[in-house]
Design goal:
Blueprint (H helix, E strand, L loop, with lengths): L1 E4 L14 H14 L3 E5 L12 H18 L3 E5 L3 H10 L3 E4 L6 H10 L3 E4 L17 H18 L7 E4 L8 H9 L1 H8 L2 E5 L4 H7 L7 H13 L4 E3 L3 H15 L6
Parallel strand pairs: 1-2, 2-3, 3-4, 4-5, 5-6, 6-7, 7-8
Helix pairs in contact: 1-2, 2-3, 3-4, 9-10
Length: 263
């Protein structure tokens, strides 16, 4: 899953693809690099991010989705928590809904169910403005599983089947480094317990900076390492900025994992 942030304030590439034409061209390039899904977002959810208005978000994402859809039939994900953005994005050509608030807004849940599209439910403790202030858990893995279990059941009550649900433990969203590491180490367990495919987003995040002491623009190798670990540990979708490098590394690692051992 290649990331397209149409925002001026995302933590890694904010402003780089703020103009619609630049974002469309970038999305088409990500497809050439090997992206199977493009994730288009118009509101930053980085720690400390300030919410944007509905109209701002629509103005940012709709031209990009429409432009990419005219050129490609690749899966386009809309990264939003707003019901009206979901519905408008689906009309524009989006075919996947990615909500960092796990469709907790009843209107968002209704919109997702109405779309009949696959959805991704993410765990986040708190809100982006304050989530990294002092995250606390008795057991991060168990609590994330419990939350996502509740959200899956809510989706099923609205007619969204489990085979149309992907879960994301929310690395970096209301978690310390230790919480993040515990969750990454438990991906197969999370997948088994929830009976859903898992999406992981670790690209360029602060967990890498904490481990390696690297700034955002120096986290490529750390991002690739965690992406490979996540894929080998059961993640189905890896959300990344650096598509070609990550896809190459994951495919090589998986080739070894799934090779047959001769007698």
């Amino acid at each position: 899953m290649g990331i397209i942030n149409t925002t001026p304030d995302s933590f890694s590439d904010g402003g780089q693809f703020y103009a619609s034409n630049a974002a469309i061209a970038y999305g088409l390039d990500l497809i050439e690099q090997g992206a199977d899904i493009l994730d288009v977002g118009g509101e930053s959810t980085r720690p400390g991010a300030v919410p944007v208005s509905l109209q701002q978000e629509l103005d940012r994402v709709l031209p990009v989705i429409e432009g990419i859809r005219k050129e490609s039939d690749t899966v386009i994900s809309i990264d939003t928590s707003k019901a009206d953005v979901m519905l408008a994005a689906v009309k524009a050509g989006a075919t996947f809904i990615n909500d960092v608030k796990a469709l907790q807004n009843p209107k968002a849940l209704e919109a997702a169910a109405q779309s009949n599209l696959p959805v991704c439910l993410m765990h986040m403790q708190g809100e982006p403005t304050t989530m990294q202030a002092a995250p606390k858990y008795s057991n991060a893995v168990d609590e994330v599983i419990a939350f996502l279990t509740e959200r899956i059941l809510a989706c099923e009550q609205y007619g969204i089947t489990r085979d149309n649900i992907v879960v994301d433990p929310g690395i970096g969203f209301g978690k310390t480094q230790e919480h993040n590491l515990q969750l990454l180490n438990a991906l197969q367990h999370i997948r088994t317990q929830l009976e859903c495919e898992v999406l992981i987003g670790v690209s360029r995040k602060s967990i890498i900076g904490s481990i390696l002491g690297r700034e955002v623009d120096e986290r490529l190798y750390g991002s690739i390492g965690l992406a490979v670990q996540a894929a080998l540990n059961g993640a189905k979708i890896i959300r990344v900025h650096d598509v070609r490098a990550t896809a190459d590394a994951v495919r090589c690692a998986e080739a070894v994992k799934f090779s047959r051992v001769s007698d």
